[in-house]
Amino acid sequence: MGGLHGARPAQPLAPQGQRGPAPRRHVRAGGNARGEILRCERPHLLAVTWRYGDLPDSQVELRLSAGSDEGTTLELEHFLLPDDGVVGVGIGWELPLSIALPLYLRGELPETPVGEWYEPGEEQQRLAGVAAGAWMSLAQAEGLPLPPLPPDWA
Question: For the chain, does the N or the C end have fewer beta carbons within 10 angstroms?
Fold first, then answer.
């Protein structure tokens, strides 16, 4: 499962208020993905490379902006380099954003890997399958290449 659950930089990010690109730093996300920080414009933007299993490298941008009612809007854009296909770009963000992010924001996210405290229920598995099918259909309709699925997705 993709997502930023447990994502922590290996070293501190650029100091508060520093402008321009941050020094290259490595990140790991919940033990299932890794990457490098490409750009950090605190507190509004974080761009990283993203490697999940044996899938092609991709990039993820997280943007924060003022939302309605004094809230904050989180935008996540995950994209691959040309000709890499779309598997793993849209699929997999639903559960981390709907389960891990609210736990994190409430200060309740466990420090242990997600596999030790979370098991998706039947409804979550069904919804993940619907989302995966929709992404695959979109890719096929657009004529985009589909890389081989990881063994645990088959």
Answer: C
| 15 C-beta neighbours (distance < 10 Å), count | 8
Report residue 22 as tokens: 């941050």
Per residue in 61-116, pLDDT tens? Answer: 999 999 888 888 989 888 876 555 555 566 777 777 888 888 988 999 888 877 78
User: Whole-angstrom Cα distance, residue 98 to residue 41?
Assistant: 25
How far apart CA 27 and CA 13 sit, in angstroms, is 10
Cα 152 from chain centre: 18
| Whether this model's pTM surpasses 0.70 | no
